[in-house]
């Protein structure tokens, strides 16, 4: 009887904790943050605030941070931990770009002291439960981001800067492009495909470490299909907020390049990845079969967004 009750309780908790946070308005959050901390709204504060809010949402959503939990029922959940890893990947990328590019005027300029501390903290192991636990390190990273944000808005501290330039935005988008390309490939491989090996295409002088077959079979293992799907959901969830924030901070750059509509279309495509999954599980039907293939639907939206990013980077790199 007790065992049955425990099973019921664990099942209920698993259902309750298997939850993805809703999208929020990063511009409104940035405004509220500025009011709460009595600082000015200057270039870079919206993007930095969005990064803070995304990390906070990952850590303090319903059930908290689950990737390093080892006790039941949390240990039996894998959808949300994969979602968290997708979010974390985008957080790490943006934190590093802010450290290396957004906050520096040139390659020979000094790193911002707060961002140089925050960046490695977000690269701490995502599943460590022994002290120092993962949550503590990410929370510490947020504190350094908060310090940078306060300094950024303080005219008495001009050493803290955010340079909203076309080359900086293009640098970050190049990294996003690679992340989305990888996710799209892994999602598309849910049904399996025999592909031509194009690793060295386009460069007659290119070489690689070891010889590979001219054709390769690409297929995501059956047990990993839902993992890739939820990682993609988390990654695109974070990206939507970052892009909306950069629409504010890089507005003049995008307008000058006549790229505002292209930029906002990327957001529109990614928002489609956040539609509710009206199925108890991620279905993996064949390409044209009776049942849906949720991975292929997700791959479609991500591929369209990625194609738009390629076009946008071309616009940004023009004079």
What does this protein look like?
- Helix content is 59%, strand content 3%.
- It is mainly α and 319 residues long.
- The chain has one domain.
- Strands 1-2 form a two-stranded antiparallel ribbon.
Defining key terms:
2 strands; globular; two-stranded antiparallel sheet; mainly alpha; 319 residues
- Identify the strand order in the major beta sheet: 1-2
Largest sheet: 2 strands, antiparallel
Shape type? globular
How many alpha or pi helices?
11
> Which residues sit in consecutive blocks of at least 5 with pLDDT less than 50?
none
What is this entry, summarized?
Helices cover 59% and strands 3% of the residues. With 319 residues, it is an all-alpha fold.
